[in-house]
Structure formats: structure tokens, C-alpha cells
Design brief:
This protein is α/β, with parallel strands linked by helices. The chain is built from 4 helices and 8 strands, in the order ββαββαβαβαββ.
């Protein structure tokens, strides 16, 4: 008698083959409480079902494919949780801007230095710039001195990535936070 074809329903996730979806004749089985070894597929599925768990193909490209005896829903949950943790650890670098004018007075300068300290302690980069308007471009030296003074005020919180550089009507200075001490 010929075996009856039963359509295989796809589980949530869909990237792993489980139980009867595995097509290899022999598989390497791993898992808690199981002796790691190569088993015929029918024996491996029976081993998993006796434990009330699923046989999940985790490395399909190897010879023989590696399968793990585990609760499939818990396996997907743990996998998603690990991916989320990795994503959180690889946070993007934020760049904060601080704008000065060529005639910024001492009080405003100190106020912006406090903001710069806060940004660097948060782990953000700083793009400080002096914006020259109209004929104020003749005071380029004043703008450069102001940015260098700003960098000197923040030297214990961050390092200068790029010294003051004039581009068009703006002079830029880039700073990044110092590496955190463990």
C-alpha cells in the first residue's frame, strides 16, 4: 500500500523544518538529556515525541543535518529574544548639534558647554559649529578660537575627531565621547 500524502502545515517562523518536514534519511541529534549521535529520521522523531518535544532542524547544510530536540515555540521565543538583545547592544551613534554665533557671549558659551557635557556622557557625538552671517565671515579667527575653547572645556568628557574646519559660511568641530572605563 502506498503512503498517503499529508500536506505539511507551516509553523510560525517558517525558517526551520520540524518533525515530519525533515527530509534527510539520517540526522545528528543533540539536546538536553539525549546522547548526541546520528540516528535514522524515524528513530529521531520517535525519540523527540517520546519526550513530548519537537525535532527541529537547526543546521540543514551539514552532512548529516543537525537537529535539536526542543519545544519549538520556546526555541523560537529564545531565538527572538537573543536577536532583540543583539540589536539593543548595537545601538546607533547619535550626533547632537550645538550652534554658536561669532559673537556668542560667555554665559551662552557656558550654557552650551553644559549641554555638550550632557551629550557626551549620554554617549552621543557632538557637531559644534559657528554660523557666520553676512559680513561676519571676516571674524573667522573668532569662530575658530571659540570652537577650540569649546573643545578644551570638554576634553575630559570627549575627544576631538576633526579640528575646526571652514565649509561655506560655517566652521565645524566634531567630538566623540571617550570610551567608558570598565
Amino acid at each position: 500500500m502506498r503512503p498517503v500524502y499529508v500536506p505539511v502545515r507551516k509553523r510560525a517562523g517558517g525558517e526551520h523544518r520540524i518533525n515530519n518536514e525533515i527530509t534527510a534519511p539520517r540526522v545528528r541529534v543533540v539536546g538536553e538529556g539525549i546522547r548526541p549521535d546520528v540516528y535514522p529520521i524515524a528513530e529521531a522523531i520517535k525519540l523527540a515525541s517520546d519526550l513530548g518535544l519537537d525535532l527541529v532542524e537547526i543546521v540543514p547544510g551539514s552532512d548529516p543535518p543537525v537537529c535539536k530536540v526542543v519545544n519549538y515555540e520556546k526555541f523560537l521565543y529564545d531565538k527572538k529574544k537573543k536577536e532583540k538583545e543583539l540589536k539593543a547592544k548595537s545601538a546607533r551613534q547619535v550626533t547632537k548639534e550645538i550652534r554658536f554665533g561669532p559673537n556668542t557671549d560667555e554665559h551662552d558659551f557656558n550654557f552650551k558647554v553644559k549641554h555638550g557635557i550632557k551629550f557626551l556622557e549620554e554617549g552621543s557625538k557632538i557637531k559644534a559649529y559657528v554660523h557666520f552671517r553676512g559680513r561676519a565671515i571676516t571674524y573667522k579667527e573668532r569662530g575658530e578660537i571659540m570652537l577650540l575653547k569649546f573643545a578644551q572645556a570638554l576634553e575630559q568628557y570627549g575627544k576631538v575627531d576633526m579640528m575646526p574646519k571652514l565649509e561655506g559660511m560655517r566652521m565645524f568641530l566634531f567630538m566623540s565621547p571617550l570610551p567608558k572605563k570598565k
